[in-house]
Amino acid sequence: MRMAELSAESGVPVATVKYYLREGLLPPGERTSPNQARYSAAHVQRLRLIKALTDVGGLPLASVGAVLAAIDGDETPHRTMGLVQQELAGPAPEVSAEAAQWASGLLEDLMRRNGWKRYPAENRTVANLVAALATAKELGQEKLTDRLEEYLELALRVAELDIEVVDGLTSVDRIIEAGVIATVLGDRIFAGLRHLAQEKVSRQALGGRPPG
């Protein structure tokens, strides 16, 4: 297909497609003349993946580039998924040293009790989780952190569902791509379902209570 057809099929404007080609986010098409190239269904799929990462996942193009490089590289699906999670997490917000120390100890104890490996502090996912726990303590919401064991059980079940998405796939490229999509879109799907569930449970539990 030509550039205009690629744009129409993917829903990405021609100018944006050309930009992705210049930046190396989209591989070049097959040259048919000095100024013309032919594109395939693989290009459409790559453009849809970029849209999912940027529009739904909210990743900046620099992070998208890192994710796509991992997909196209020689890393294992597991390591590629780790990179995706780091890019999704982003830098952690700052919290007080005292609260961060308390949260780190709480998390390490949880990991130890459940037989999980110890993650380095520079891991963005860990840093963001520590910041969230520390913030909960600073706001006096220890009841939230008291339920960590139960949250961990739920997280494990969700992770099992995520991995089932790639079960049965034989191509490493497809495994990685499906895992990336499950991670990015799965976060948004679960967050949306959680918010809807909170609204339902809140209405049932709190809807009849008087203001104040």
UniProtKB/TrEMBL annotation:
It comes from Amycolatopsis melonis. Residues 1-70 form the HTH merR-type domain. It comes from the Bacteria. The keyword Lipoprotein does not apply. Coiled coil: none annotated. Keywords: DNA-binding. The keyword Repeat does not apply. PANTHER family: HTH-TYPE TRANSCRIPTIONAL REGULATOR ADHR, REDOX-CYCLING DRUG-SENSING TRANSCRIPTIONAL ACTIVATOR SOXR. Pfam families: MerR_1. This is MerR family transcriptional regulator. InterPro entries: DNA-bd_dom_put_sf, MerR-type_HTH_dom, MerR_fam.
